[in-house]
TrEMBL record:
Alphabetical keyword list: Signal
Pfam families: E1_DerP2_DerF2 (PF02221)
Hydrolase recorded as keyword: no
Name this protein carries in UniProt: MD-2-related lipid-recognition domain-containing protein
InterPro entries in alphabetical order: ML_dom
SMART domains: ML (SM00737)
Signal peptide: 1-24
Segments forming domain MD-2-related lipid-recognition: 27-143
Species this chain originates from: Thlaspi arvense
Top-level lineage group: Eukaryota
Length: 154
Protein backbone atom coordinates (compact mmCIF):
# COMPACT_ATOMS: atom_id res chain seq x y z
CA UNK A 1 0.00 0.00 0.00
CA UNK A 2 2.68 2.47 1.01
CA UNK A 3 4.62 1.85 -2.20
CA UNK A 4 1.65 2.43 -4.47
CA UNK A 5 1.39 5.93 -3.02
CA UNK A 6 5.08 6.65 -3.29
CA UNK A 7 5.48 5.79 -6.96
CA UNK A 8 3.06 8.35 -8.41
CA UNK A 9 4.67 10.99 -6.22
CA UNK A 10 8.13 10.08 -7.50
CA UNK A 11 6.83 10.17 -11.06
CA UNK A 12 5.37 13.60 -10.48
CA UNK A 13 8.61 14.91 -9.02
CA UNK A 14 10.51 13.31 -11.88
CA UNK A 15 8.38 14.96 -14.55
CA UNK A 16 8.50 18.36 -12.85
CA UNK A 17 12.25 18.07 -12.83
CA UNK A 18 12.77 16.84 -16.39
CA UNK A 19 9.98 18.36 -18.49
CA UNK A 20 11.07 22.01 -18.58
CA UNK A 21 14.52 21.13 -19.95
CA UNK A 22 13.07 18.76 -22.54
CA UNK A 23 10.51 21.26 -23.75
CA UNK A 24 12.85 24.15 -24.50
CA UNK A 25 13.90 24.54 -28.13
CA UNK A 26 16.80 26.54 -29.49
CA UNK A 27 15.69 29.67 -31.28
CA UNK A 28 17.20 32.56 -33.21
CA UNK A 29 16.23 36.18 -33.59
CA UNK A 30 14.68 36.70 -37.04
CA UNK A 31 16.98 39.65 -37.72
CA UNK A 32 19.98 37.70 -36.39
CA UNK A 33 21.25 40.38 -34.01
CA UNK A 34 18.36 40.96 -31.60
CA UNK A 35 16.05 43.90 -31.01
CA UNK A 36 15.92 47.17 -29.10
CA UNK A 37 12.51 46.18 -27.74
CA UNK A 38 13.93 43.54 -25.41
CA UNK A 39 15.00 39.94 -25.46
CA UNK A 40 13.70 36.40 -25.49
CA UNK A 41 15.16 34.10 -22.88
CA UNK A 42 13.33 30.87 -23.60
CA UNK A 43 11.01 29.21 -26.13
CA UNK A 44 9.17 26.10 -24.95
CA UNK A 45 7.14 23.67 -27.02
CA UNK A 46 4.65 21.07 -25.92
CA UNK A 47 4.45 18.27 -26.92
CA UNK A 48 8.17 17.91 -27.46
CA UNK A 49 8.97 16.01 -29.53
CA UNK A 50 5.88 16.36 -31.72
CA UNK A 51 4.66 12.86 -32.56
CA UNK A 52 2.84 11.36 -35.55
CA UNK A 53 -0.57 11.76 -33.89
CA UNK A 54 -0.18 15.38 -32.81
CA UNK A 55 -1.95 18.00 -34.88
CA UNK A 56 -1.37 21.06 -32.72
CA UNK A 57 1.19 22.38 -30.25
CA UNK A 58 1.55 24.88 -27.47
CA UNK A 59 4.31 27.47 -27.65
CA UNK A 60 5.45 29.55 -24.69
CA UNK A 61 7.81 32.46 -25.24
CA UNK A 62 9.53 34.06 -22.24
CA UNK A 63 11.46 37.30 -22.37
CA UNK A 64 12.03 40.78 -21.13
CA UNK A 65 10.64 44.05 -22.53
CA UNK A 66 12.78 47.17 -22.23
CA UNK A 67 10.13 49.20 -24.09
CA UNK A 68 6.37 49.27 -23.79
CA UNK A 69 3.71 48.35 -26.35
CA UNK A 70 0.23 49.81 -25.84
CA UNK A 71 -1.56 48.23 -28.75
CA UNK A 72 0.19 45.26 -30.27
CA UNK A 73 -0.22 41.67 -31.26
CA UNK A 74 1.62 38.39 -31.23
CA UNK A 75 1.59 36.32 -34.39
CA UNK A 76 2.70 32.76 -35.06
CA UNK A 77 3.62 31.81 -38.62
CA UNK A 78 4.99 28.77 -40.35
CA UNK A 79 7.45 29.99 -42.96
CA UNK A 80 9.32 28.22 -45.73
CA UNK A 81 11.12 29.57 -48.77
CA UNK A 82 7.89 30.22 -50.66
CA UNK A 83 5.07 29.99 -48.13
CA UNK A 84 4.10 31.92 -45.01
CA UNK A 85 1.02 30.72 -43.13
CA UNK A 86 -0.49 32.76 -40.29
CA UNK A 87 -1.43 30.21 -37.61
CA UNK A 88 -2.42 32.36 -34.64
CA UNK A 89 -2.77 36.02 -33.66
CA UNK A 90 -3.40 37.44 -30.18
CA UNK A 91 -3.63 40.95 -28.80
CA UNK A 92 -0.62 42.01 -26.77
CA UNK A 93 0.37 44.93 -24.56
CA UNK A 94 3.26 45.33 -22.15
CA UNK A 95 4.89 47.85 -19.85
CA UNK A 96 8.53 48.77 -20.27
CA UNK A 97 10.85 47.09 -17.80
CA UNK A 98 8.82 43.94 -17.26
CA UNK A 99 9.33 40.32 -18.13
CA UNK A 100 6.72 38.56 -20.24
CA UNK A 101 5.38 35.07 -20.73
CA UNK A 102 3.45 34.55 -23.94
CA UNK A 103 1.29 31.44 -23.79
CA UNK A 104 0.30 30.43 -27.32
CA UNK A 105 -1.81 27.29 -27.04
CA UNK A 106 -3.50 25.30 -29.79
CA UNK A 107 -1.23 26.35 -32.64
CA UNK A 108 -1.94 24.12 -35.67
CA UNK A 109 0.81 21.81 -36.82
CA UNK A 110 1.67 23.01 -40.32
CA UNK A 111 4.42 20.99 -41.97
CA UNK A 112 5.64 22.82 -45.07
CA UNK A 113 7.68 21.41 -47.90
CA UNK A 114 11.43 21.92 -47.71
CA UNK A 115 13.11 23.76 -44.87
CA UNK A 116 10.63 25.61 -42.73
CA UNK A 117 10.53 27.39 -39.39
CA UNK A 118 7.94 28.50 -36.93
CA UNK A 119 8.11 32.23 -36.34
CA UNK A 120 6.74 34.17 -33.35
CA UNK A 121 6.65 37.94 -33.79
CA UNK A 122 5.50 40.76 -31.57
CA UNK A 123 4.01 43.61 -33.60
CA UNK A 124 3.21 47.16 -32.57
CA UNK A 125 0.27 48.90 -34.26
CA UNK A 126 0.76 52.18 -32.49
CA UNK A 127 3.56 53.57 -34.61
CA UNK A 128 2.50 57.02 -35.73
CA UNK A 129 1.99 57.47 -39.47
CA UNK A 130 2.94 53.95 -40.43
CA UNK A 131 -0.06 51.89 -41.54
CA UNK A 132 1.73 48.59 -41.23
CA UNK A 133 2.40 47.29 -37.73
CA UNK A 134 6.13 47.09 -37.12
CA UNK A 135 7.96 44.08 -35.75
CA UNK A 136 9.30 44.79 -32.26
CA UNK A 137 10.81 41.38 -31.67
CA UNK A 138 10.78 38.12 -33.58
CA UNK A 139 12.22 34.64 -33.04
CA UNK A 140 12.23 31.56 -35.23
CA UNK A 141 12.93 27.91 -34.51
CA UNK A 142 12.67 24.42 -35.99
CA UNK A 143 9.83 22.23 -34.78
CA UNK A 144 11.04 19.29 -32.69
CA UNK A 145 9.35 16.64 -34.84
CA UNK A 146 9.99 13.01 -33.97
CA UNK A 147 11.55 11.05 -36.85
CA UNK A 148 8.51 8.97 -37.93
CA UNK A 149 6.52 12.16 -38.65
CA UNK A 150 8.99 13.43 -41.22
CA UNK A 151 7.15 14.01 -44.45
CA UNK A 152 8.60 12.60 -47.62
CA UNK A 153 8.15 15.31 -50.21
CA UNK A 154 6.61 14.13 -53.43
C1 LIG B 1 17.73 44.05 -35.54
O1 LIG B 1 16.83 45.03 -35.03
C2 LIG B 1 17.44 46.08 -34.27
C3 LIG B 1 16.36 47.05 -33.85
O2 LIG B 1 15.47 46.46 -32.92
C4 LIG B 1 18.46 46.82 -35.10
O3 LIG B 1 19.13 47.77 -34.29
C5 LIG B 1 19.45 45.83 -35.69
O4 LIG B 1 20.32 46.51 -36.55
C6 LIG B 1 18.72 44.75 -36.45
N1 LIG B 1 19.67 43.79 -36.99
C7 LIG B 1 19.70 43.48 -38.29
C8 LIG B 1 20.75 42.48 -38.69
O5 LIG B 1 18.92 43.96 -39.10
C1 LIG C 1 17.37 40.10 -21.16
O1 LIG C 1 17.30 41.46 -20.74
C2 LIG C 1 17.37 41.64 -19.33
C3 LIG C 1 17.16 43.10 -19.02
O2 LIG C 1 17.96 43.91 -19.82
C4 LIG C 1 18.73 41.12 -18.83
O3 LIG C 1 18.78 41.22 -17.43
C5 LIG C 1 18.89 39.66 -19.24
O4 LIG C 1 20.19 39.22 -18.88
C6 LIG C 1 18.70 39.50 -20.74
N1 LIG C 1 18.75 38.07 -21.06
C7 LIG C 1 19.30 37.63 -22.18
C8 LIG C 1 19.28 36.16 -22.36
O5 LIG C 1 19.79 38.36 -23.03
C1 LIG D 1 10.32 28.11 -54.27
O1 LIG D 1 10.04 28.74 -55.50
C2 LIG D 1 11.13 28.75 -56.39
C3 LIG D 1 10.74 29.56 -57.62
O2 LIG D 1 9.47 29.20 -58.08
C4 LIG D 1 11.50 27.31 -56.76
O3 LIG D 1 12.61 27.29 -57.64
C5 LIG D 1 11.85 26.57 -55.48
O4 LIG D 1 12.10 25.19 -55.76
C6 LIG D 1 10.71 26.65 -54.48
N1 LIG D 1 11.12 26.05 -53.20
C7 LIG D 1 10.43 25.05 -52.61
C8 LIG D 1 11.00 24.53 -51.32
O5 LIG D 1 9.39 24.59 -53.07
Amino acid sequence: MAISHVQPLLLLIGSLFFLPALRAVSFEYCNASGYDFGNVTDVEISPNPIGPNDFELSITVLGFASKSIDSGSVEVHARSENITDLLRRDAFAIEAGTSFVLPLPEVPLDILEGDFKYVVSVLDKDVGDSKEPIVRICVDFDLPISAPTLVVSA
